[in-house]
Every structure is written in structure tokens, then in C-alpha cells.
């Protein structure tokens, strides 16, 4: 999401780092570029002004100008101010400190992803917090909205309030809370109706529901792709309802990132979750310091490790590691690895969590490999392997011209696609054999370059 902003800021700070000493003019010139980058990212003007003022106050002084690494010191100051702007260090937890069933009110405009987010939140509460959750749709405006939430509840494995046609949102809310008490639910998630734009009828309805249910959390769901409109929406809802938290959806989209940077400063409400993708498990806690690290090109290695620990089958991963070490890695193992990787999200999102993500992406684009990282690539590779016989997967060397044609026809791909997959597998196998041969000491001594196929270098 922050690719454009991250690229510009990384360029500014790279230039600062190359200078042995910095003058006050150097710092102010860099801050002008930072200001333009933030404005171009659709960050609200008052937020940009406040941000630059805070950085300038700390960066223009003897502490920075006379330090041993002034460029790095400026980056640290920008990082600290960025974390504050995003809400301070650490994620803000969901408030469940109330008598059961705890009501959570989901509000927002139509199309913001409110219903899907309700399903994601229910799954998260069930899996991570071991809560018994009831989903209730109060949306009588949008056709099939209640059926959509019922379907999401089944997918998540949580309870769903039975649909009774003709009831008003207030009546549904009262029935949901009553059902929650009688059937001993821990949490009741109330998914309210949205509108295409903010109007008096919408606000009056959600205000009445809020007054009747007294929710422990009033979560505003906003689409990060709408940029400054998302900030305006958040301000209007917060003024009318006093929202306790914000959920930013479509954080994996090609947006400029201004909404995330402006939201806390404009509303005062913390961003509690971010959503990326349509999968029900694609909802994450919002960690300001990690997001700041990604914006400044430092990555989010902690988040990547957490995602891997949560989604990757540890036993299967250890089994693959042992086979790699022995040099017995085959295409069936490669397919298993692809499945594990697919669970963690798109390759683009994984790259976005690595330090220097912008430079990695630029190197891929320059080499012409950037186009290979589309979200469907892993599924296509799995389809090719699935089209092979067991014998071919165990012994890839037997796959010659006629077999390649059959495999390509069987999965609807081309022979070139099959060749590309086999080449990737061959490169990985070669790298694993070299790693085993070199051992840990040799790898530390010669670095990653020694693992690459002849004539190639890592970016």
C-alpha cells in the first residue's frame, strides 16, 4: 500500500546517509521533499504540517548536526514521529471488558467491507481468543446483506442470528442481545447498514442502535483506497458516534497510504485492525511501529515471522527442511512449499514486509521478473505440478518434450510455463545442494552470492 511513499522517502534518506556531515540547510531541504512526498500520498494538510514541525524541532539542532551519523539520526527522528502519528508504539487491543455478551457495533459506509470485516473479526475472536461469537446483520437496506453475513458465519464456524423478515434494525439488535444472553455467547457482533454517503437517516439509525445496545466497541470500517474521503468519513462518524476504533480495509491495494497516516490525528480514534484480501483470516492487528518501518523501507520482519508461525504447518516445514538438507527435495515437496507460501498471502505482500522492499521490487522490475509476482502465480505453479504423474514429480529429469506437452495441455498452460517452473525448481535444488555442501561456516564466509546459480547475483 505504501510503495510510492516508501520509495520517495527511502530516496531522500539514502541521500542523507551518504553525506558525512549535515548542515541545517541539508536537513531543511530533505524535509521539504518529505513534505511533498506526504502531500502526494494524500495525507491531510494539517497532519503534514504538524508532522514536519515535530521533525524539524528535533532534527535541526546540535544533537543531529554534530552526531557521528547525522543521516541515520534524522531517519530515527522521522520514524519516531511517524509512529506517534500512526497511534504510538504497540497495537491497541480490542476492549472486551464488559459483561457477556459483549456487544461490538460495526459501522461504516456501504462498500467499505463492513460485512466481510465482521466475519473476519468473528473468526479472529473464535480462533485467537476462544470466544463464542454471534453474528447479527442489522442491514435491512441492502438486498441479501443478511444472507451474506449468515454465509460468512458458517465459513467462520460461529453463530448467526436467524433471519426474521420485516424487523427493524433496532428490533434485530434487541433480539441479538437477548439471544446472546440466553444462549451464553461471549461476543455479539452487530453489523449495521451502510449508505453510499453520509446522511441524517444513517446517523440517526446507528445512534439509536448504539444507545440501545451500549457497545463495548464501536468500530468504524473504512476503505483505505478512498484516501482523503476515508478520513472525512471517519471524522463524520466519530463526531456523531464517538467511535472507539478504526478498521482499515483493502490495505493491500495500490493506494497512496494517506488515509492510514491521517486517521489517528484527525479523529483521535486508534486504528485497531487492518484488512487485506477477501480471505476470512486476512485481518491483522495494526502495529504503528511496524507500519512505520515498512514506510521507511525497514520492513516488518517481526510481522512476517508471526504470520509464518501462525499459518505454516511446523511439522511439514521441518520435514521439508530435512529433505532439503539431504538433497532429496522433489517436485512434490516443491508443491507442498508453494502451498505453505500461499497461506501467507501474496508474494507482493511478503516482499513488502522485508527490509529494503522497495529496492527488491525495483530490482525485480528492472530484471523483468516483477510481472512474475502476480497473485495467481503460485496457483498456476501448483496446477502445473498437479498435472504431472507421481513418477514425474518424484523424478523431474524424466520430463522431456512429449511429457511437457501433455502436462501443459492438462493444466491449460504452455510448454514455456512448464519449462519456467522446472527451471525454478532446478535453481532451488542447486542452491540447496550448495548450502548443504558449504555448511554454516562456509555460508557465513562466502555469503548469499555463493548460493546463486552461475552468472547470477542476488539483487
Short characterization:
The protein is of the alpha/beta class. Helix content is 58%, strand content 8%. Helix 8 (169-182) packs parallel to helix 9.
Protein model, in words:
The chain is α/β, with parallel strands linked by helices and 459 residues long. The protein has 3 domains: 3-86, Up-down Bundle (Four Helix Bundle (Hemerythrin (Met), subunit A)); 102-298, 3-Layer(aba) Sandwich (Rossmann fold), CATH 3.40.50.300; 303-451, 434 Repressor (Amino-terminal Domain), CATH 1.10.260. 58% of the residues lie in helices and 8% in strands. It has an 8-stranded mixed beta sheet with strand order 3-2-4-1-5-6-7-8, with helices on both faces. The two termini are 22 Å apart. Mean pLDDT is 79; it is low at 440-459.
Name the beta content range: 5-15%
The residue ranges in which pLDDT falls below 50 over 5 or more consecutive positions are 440-459
Largest sheet features? 8 strands, mixed
What is the count of DSSP helices, taking H or I runs of 4+ residues?
21
End-to-end C-alpha gap? 22 Å
Task: Give the C-alpha Rg.
Answer: 26 Å
Quote the CATH topology of the largest domain.
Rossmann fold
Structural class: alpha/beta
Our count of domains comes out at 3
Mean pLDDT: 79
Give me the count of strands.
8
Q: Portion of residues in helices?
A: 55-70%
Based on CA inertia axes, which overall geometry fits? flat
| CATH class division of the largest domain | Alpha Beta
The strand line-up of the biggest sheet is 3-2-4-1-5-6-7-8
Instruction: State the fourth-level CATH superfamily of the largest domain.
Output: P-loop containing nucleotide triphosphate hydrolases
SSE sequence, one letter per element: HHHHHEHEHEHEHEHEHEEHHHHHHHHHH
CATH architecture annotation name of the largest domain: 3-Layer(aba) Sandwich
